[in-house]
Amino acid sequence: MKSLGQRAQGLRLERMQSSPLWAGEGFRNRHPVLPGLRDATAPRPSLSEFLCGGPRRTPSGPLPLLDPRTTWQRPADTGLRATWLGHSTVLIEIDGWRVLTDPVWGARASPTRLAGPKRFQPVPVSLAALPEVDVVLISHDHYDHLCHPTIRALRNSPVPFVTSLGVGAHLEAWGIAPERITELDWWQNHTVPGTGLQISAAPSQHFSGRGLKDRNATLWSSLVVRGDRHAVFFSGDTGLTTEYARIREHFGPFDLAMLEVGAFHPSWGDIHLGPANALKALALLGHPPLLPIHWGTFSLALHDWDEPVETLLALAPQQSARLVMPRLGEPAQPARVDAVLPWWRPMAAGPRPPANTSPPPPSANERPLPASVPWPLD
């Protein structure tokens, strides 16, 4: 099955094996894990629990979408703007350059079109409608971050890719020319040719694999994007570790942090953050504004679909966290965000307090897309 990707060979494999993170048959987590993160008494969820989840695993209807294309035609006057397009896909406009993170336009986070976690709603804009992008970042090779149909759709574009060690083998197998691919080990930097962008790979606490026999065959990373005046941190998938403090010291300060808050479970404490640990990670990063990612798109855990952001909203004031929580497709300049409106609550099944929680109306240049657009691909 082509969507499974390709194992690294030859010089690529030799480079991977020379990494200090290589452990004989694959990569392993090396940085310290804070104590008490995993609840050893919590049973691991079963396959039947995943397949037969409760009624609040998905929204009661598609979440509101905004069309960002008119806004994208104007440069961000602060120099930094981010548009969350769903899950971990963000279009970052930084100091005149555009960066796309973990692009997933496929209908399912799965190797097949017939089964697997399905999108709650389509991406606010088609892949073809994106403005010209200067670089695509891929944090790791899981299906909800590395999407076969999306990469195939990008194969004839000249856009370069920066990713973790070994992931380039998948990209090449799907038609991306090798000269467009840069693979990084942790703490390595890459300057995107023709731009003022520096991309750096940093530690994360996770794992990799797209099949039954390739566990940890490629590296997983968080990523730092630095322009002339701004720097942003993108977590990819990770648990909470002391490495966040080292990342801040090495690459900071940051003007925005995009941290995963969804798909967590008590027994997974060291490979995903969840909202409470995302706030702890944010503190270690120096308290930049937080754009939560990895939620609101796929049902990948047993918790309610909106639990991550409801918990985040409740805990953030206690820790003086500055939240940036735009609607899907709504461009946001972190320096200009001073309040959060819980726009997702109308799509939550069951009662929600208080009364003033309906999503704000779109501005004149942000036209809502139909919520019932069919999704034919993948």
Shape: globular
Reported for the largest beta sheet, the result is:
6 strands, mixed
User: How many helices in DSSP terms?
Assistant: 8
Helix content: 10-25%
Supply Rg. 19 Å
How far apart are the first and last residues' alpha carbons, in Å?
14 Å
What is the CATH-assigned architecture?
4-Layer Sandwich
Q: Low-confidence parts, pLDDT < 50 over ≥5 residues?
A: 350-378
DSSP, total strands? 12
Mean pLDDT, all residues: 88
Quickly count the domains: 1
Strand content: 5-15%
- The CATH topology is what? Metallo-beta-lactamase, Chain A
The class by helix and strand makeup works out as: alpha/beta
User: What is the string of helix and strand elements?
Assistant: HHHEEEEHEHEEEEEHEHEH
- CATH C-level class is Alpha Beta
Instruction: State the strand order across the main sheet.
Output: 1-2-3-4-5-6
Give the SSE layout:
Elements: H1 10-17, H2 47-51, H3 69-72, E1 80-86, E2 89-94, E3 97-101, E4 135-138, H4 148-153, E5 161-164, H5 168-173, E6 181-184, E7 189-191, E8 198-202, E9 222-226, E10 231-234, H6 243-251, E11 256-260, H7 274-284, E12 290-293, H8 307-315
Parallel strand pairs: 3-4, 4-5, 5-6, 10-11, 11-12
Antiparallel strand pairs: 1-2, 2-3, 7-8, 8-9, 9-10
Helix pairs in contact: 7-8
